[in-house]
């Protein structure tokens, strides 16, 4: 049973009573009359053949309040896109698939690339960005949830709790972040959040001072959660990273664009497990190693926009401060795991901390050496300013793909 404690400056909506799904969905059906709801699913084709996504589709088939489901499909050829149309046809809700590798969307991407108006790096961030553009173009929904397609413990309760805060007309939230305990298979998961993000934010507070942005970030119980929901008007002006800094970047944009009382976080699942990344200590372009570098750079860039001046000396101090705080967290999590009867490998945890500490230094060096790096994808408002008909073209391209390949 969750507590009701409000930590930090962001409203936390708890799961205090395990309210029945039917009650939540009854409310959401009523809310949908005033605020039509949609779901955004960024997916790799490989996930259609995995364990999690077929189960997610089975759960979504029974959801009564969604007006639209938008699927972003990456790494798919024509036959695989055709297969995806069949796979998702089980959904009774109106849905469309963005075939990001198809010729029509590729042509739009190449034109935007030539103008410097598209994500430079393929990945989840790029996928989500194009789906957001399509949602603006479609105009069918007012409140939208986003979650990953690799959640092996998925139930429709997660979606209902995730979208409820931005769907309820009596609430004033523009954005909601999901959170959950990363406990599965008898052990603690979520190493990057536990051993990198939280200790790094605490270390930054000590090194650069407790700025409002750091207090804001430290208020989120699971800042790396891939589940969040938002009102449609959020989409026009948000600028997000296209790398592993997506989740941190989205939170940073919400901090820039909205007052704290328009944002919240919600407990969406008692059990949560998904596909795990390898640590990859010998390859900074893969796994948790790349993720940690991208996340650290995302935090450094945001603080720089707030006037923080970084130097090689400050990064050395930050590394030392982080390392001590992170090792203390290892002991804390070990004790928590033991008391709850969970497996906990201290050696593996400290190996992760050592890699993260090195990557913080490397991320700092990259940040200093490339001050002209443009980390964010342009907002859709800027894209529309350059290409006034972009939304019509994006919508028509998705429809043309659907008509051609579903015939």
Task: Give the SSE map.
Blueprint: E1 11-13, H1 21-32, E2 37-44, H2 52-60, E3 66-74, H3 78-88, E4 95-99, H4 103-114, H5 124-138, E5 143-146, H6 156-167, E6 175-180, E7 183-184, E8 187-188, H7 191-208, H8 212-217, E9 228-231, H9 246-257, E10 263-269, H10 287-305, H11 312-339, H12 346-369, H13 380-386, H14 390-406
Parallel strand pairs: 1-10, 2-3, 2-5, 3-4, 6-10
Antiparallel strand pairs: 5-9, 6-9, 7-8
Helix pairs in contact: 1-6, 5-14, 7-10, 7-11, 9-10, 10-12, 11-12
Description:
The protein is an alpha/beta fold and 407 residues long. It has 14 helices and ten strands. The chain has helices spanning 21-32, 52-60, 78-88, 103-114, 124-138, 156-167, 191-208, 212-217, 246-257, 287-305, 312-339, 346-369, 380-386, 390-406; strands at residues 11-13, 37-44, 66-74, 95-99, 143-146, 175-180, 183-184, 187-188, 228-231, 263-269. It has an eight-stranded mixed sheet, with helices on both faces. Strands 7-8 form a two-stranded antiparallel ribbon. β2, α2 (52-60) and β3 (66-74) form a beta-alpha-beta unit. α10 (287-305) crosses α12 and α11 (312-339) runs antiparallel to α12. The protein is globular. It starts with 10 loop residues before the first strand and ends with a helix.
């Amino acid at each position: 049973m969750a507590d009701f404690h409000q930590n930090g400056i962001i409203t936390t909506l708890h799961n205090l009573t395990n309210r029945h799904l039917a009650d939540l969905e009854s409310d959401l059906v009523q809310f949908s009359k005033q605020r039509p709801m949609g779901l955004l699913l960024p997916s790799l084709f490989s996930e259609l053949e995995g364990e999690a996504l077929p189960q997610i589709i089975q759960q979504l088939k029974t959801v009564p309040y969604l007006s639209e489901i938008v699927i972003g499909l990456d790494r798919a050829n024509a036959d695989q896109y055709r297969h995806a149309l069949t796979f998702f046809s089980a959904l009774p809700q109106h849905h469309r698939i963005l075939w990001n590798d198809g010729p029509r969307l590729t042509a739009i991407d190449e034109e935007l690339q030539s103008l410097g108006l598209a994500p430079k790096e393929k990945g989840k961030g790029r996928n989500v960005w194009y789906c957001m553009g399509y949602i603006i173009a479609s105009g069918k929904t007012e409140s939208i949830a986003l979650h990953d397609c690799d959640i092996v413990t998925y139930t429709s309760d997660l979606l209902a709790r995730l979208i409820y805060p931005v769907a309820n007309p009596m609430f004033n939230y523009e954005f909601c972040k999901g959170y959950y305990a990363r406990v599965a298979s008898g052990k603690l998961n979520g190493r990057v959040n536990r051993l990198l993000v939280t200790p790094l934010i605490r270390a930054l507070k000590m090194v650069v001072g407790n700025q409002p942005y750091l207090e804001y970030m430290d208020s989120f119980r699971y800042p790396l959660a891939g589940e969040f929901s938002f009102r449609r008007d959020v989409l026009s002006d948000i600028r997000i990273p296209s790398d592993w800094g997506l989740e941190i970047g989205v939170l940073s944009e919400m901090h820039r664009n909205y007052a704290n009382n328009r944002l919240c976080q919600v407990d969406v699942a008692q059990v949560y497990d998904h596909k795990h990344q390898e640590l990859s200590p010998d390859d900074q372009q893969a796994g948790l190693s790349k993720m940690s570098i991208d996340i650290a750079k995302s935090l450094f860039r945001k603080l720089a926009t707030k006037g923080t001046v970084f130097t090689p000396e400050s990064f050395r101090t930050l590394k030392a401060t982080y390392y001590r705080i992170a090792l203390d967290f290892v002991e804390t999590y070990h004790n928590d795991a033991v008391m709850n009867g969970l497996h906990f490998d201290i050696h593996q945890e400290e190996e992760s901390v050592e890699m993260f500490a090195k990557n913080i230094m490397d991320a700092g060096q990259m940040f200093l050496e490339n001050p002209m790096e443009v980390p964010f994808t342009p907002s859709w408002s800027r894209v529309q300013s350059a290409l006034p008909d972009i939304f019509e073209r994006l919508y028509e391209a998705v429809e043309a793909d659907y008509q051609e390949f579903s015939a």
